Structures are given as structure tokens and as C-alpha cells.
Amino acid sequence: MSSALEKALNLIELMVQRPAGASVSEIAELAQQPVSGVHRSLKMLEELGYVRQIDQGKHYALTIKLSSLGLSYLGNLGINDVTQPLLDKLAEQTEELVRLSILDGDNLVWVGVSQGTKSGLKYDPSSEQGQIAHLASSASGLAFLASMSDEAAMARVMQQGIEREGEGSQAPVTVATLLEALHETRSRGYSRNRNSFLEGMAAMARVIVDPISGEPFGTVSIAGPSVRLTDARMDQFEQLLQQTAKELSDASRASNYFKSIGR
Domain limits of the chain? Predict the structure, then answer.
């Protein structure tokens, strides 16, 4: 990868977290790049239609071109066509947030969501869609890590980082506490956490496996405010989560995405 391309892609990734826009100096500080170089990269991205100037040129923001390409790509793969009805059904049954993550290389990426809560307290993860799940602190990550050996799981975690900015007070921050969580997950058959990925949020997740090879390729999770998604409610949802994971496994055979990677 060329240096110019790498720097431009880095800017795009940073600007995803700044939907309202940011100044050149702010972007340069976040990217740890010289202001002059960032300005050149932004001008190039502007010419290509990926960023635009706002506030009379004081700030730069992403255009919808990137998101349009992403939605078009997902649509052509057929992931949402086969998974969305199943996510919607589980969200309606639990009245909580349901999410789908898919393994993309070494990363677990959130690609599907359905909100079952129509009113009152709810968790809105819109900014996280399309993002890489943090393995150590998210229920999806724990479920995925628990499907492999301790050694393989810790190698994945150390590559990504065991801690993340903004995580909750009960997130695993040591190898010992993470291994304990993984052993509990394997014993239970699915992951649970509370005040881990975010303070005040609880979640449970189960891996989705390939119906032929049995290898995990994603997770399905239920998340909500911890005051509402109690252990007792998670007990009630266990069979629903297991059934949905099985249905998603079976449905994966109809998606162009899984066909393209040999599943």
C-alpha cells in the first residue's frame, strides 16, 4: 500500500467518527499527521467525492458516497436479505436490541441490527454499525473468542488491545479476568456481560456456525439497558438466542457473501 493511499484511508476512518465534520488541524491531530499533508489528502478526497467542505470551508466532512457504496455492497452480497427477517423476529420477541456480526478476515464486524424497543429507555448503536467489534469488552467478541483455544483467543485480543476507550467499569482489563470470562462463556454456551462494552448496558451473544464445516463465522447478540436486561430475562431469552443462531446458520447458505468465501 502506498503511503499516500494509507494516509487517505486513515483519514476516512477517523472522519467516520466525526459526522458533523472537523477542521484540518483537528483531523491532523487525531491522525498524527502533518497539517500540510492532511490538507493535501483532504483535497484529493474532495476531488474524488468522498469529503466536502462545510461551514464555509472551515471544516471537512464525509459525503454519503462512502456509505452508499457500503450499502450497495451489502445489498449485492445478500447478507441482509437472508438475515434481517430473523433479526427482526428476535427483536420483536425480546423487545431489545438485536445485532449480527460477521467475521471479515481476522475482524468481527457489526453488519445487521434490529431495534425491538419501541419506546422508553433504549440503546442506539447506529454509530457502531459497520465498525469492528472490540473482542474483550463486547458480548459478541467474548462469544467468538470462546469458540477457540485460550492461546488463540489471547493472540487475537493482544493484536487488537485488551482495553478500549469508553468501555464500562466491569470490562476485562487483565488476562486473568478475560480468561475467566471465556471459561464461563464456554460452560454456559453463550456469553453474558454487564457494564462492559458500555456502562449501563448488558448483553448476551452466541456464535453462528457454518452448517457444513461447523466453523464460527459470526455472532448474534441481544443488548439493552442493564436495569432492564437482567440475568433473569437473559435466562428467558437463552432458547430464543440459540434458535436464532441456528436459523442464521441455515440461512447463510442463501447469501452470496458466504458462497464467495467458500462456505
Answer: 3-63, 72-260
Produce one character per residue of 228-251: b if its CB has 16 or more CB atoms within 10 Å, e if not: ebeeebbeebbeebeebbebbbeb
CATH number for region 3-63 = 1.10.10.10
- Identify the CATH number of the domain defined by range 72-260: 3.30.450.40
Q: What distance in Å separates the CA atoms of residue 152 and residue 116, rounded to the nearest whole number?
A: 35
Residue 239 has pLDDT above 60, yes or no: yes
Distance CA 197, CA 25 (A): 30
Mean pLDDT of 147-174: 94
Q: Is 119 exposed, middle or buried (0-12, 13-18, 19+ CB in 10 A)?
A: exposed
Asked if the domains at 3-63 and 72-260 fall in one CATH topology, the answer is no
- pTM, full prediction: 0.75
